[in-house]
Amino acid sequence: MKRILPVLCVLMAVLIVVIGMTSVSFSWFEPDVKEGIGLEFKDDTKLRAQNCSIATYSGTKGNKLTTYGTSPVANANVTVSATTAGDTSTPGYAYFKTVITNSSEDYDTVVSLFIPSFTPAANSSASICVAYPTNSCRTYSAAQTDIHIIRNAYVPQNIKTDANPGQLIVEWFVRCDAGSVTFNPSQVYLMYS
Fold this sequence. Notes:
With 193 residues, the chain is mainly β. The chain has one helix at 4-27, and strands at 35-36, 39-40, 52-61, 66-68, 78-81, 93-102, 109-120, 125-132, 136-140, 144-155, 167-178, 180-183, 189-192. The longest helix has 24 residues, at 4-27.
């Protein structure tokens, strides 16, 4: 029995290594590979969201009501500080509306909206908050990249008879509680879920 135990341990280790190597090779594929040995990419799992576009508008907060511009924001950094405004009349806040449009007449889609960089200054605290369609807020105190504004948002197909055909409007704002934060609202981007 004492002689069999080391042999069994070695065989078990070899078996674990072999299973680990083969299962990883079947489970992970490069981005554009559609099939592999033992697994196949089915048509019903394809993303049907290639027809989405976005436009972001800045806004100002009035008497409990936010008014947005009619032209998309320019490609420039915005700095919001706790003592001065970021393109608004309210210190410490900057308001935005991103309109996600699905031009497909055949498919609804689910997308996530991201901002590529959000850079609070040293000893600063700033938040990205969504007022519509969700009510959420997340605070950051250090520089971040590729952070989500909203995840898994449903955008309906473009039906010509709807009041807002194929659109989802995301109202969001940046709040700076201490120090300042810099970001570029025109560079928000979509990821298809």
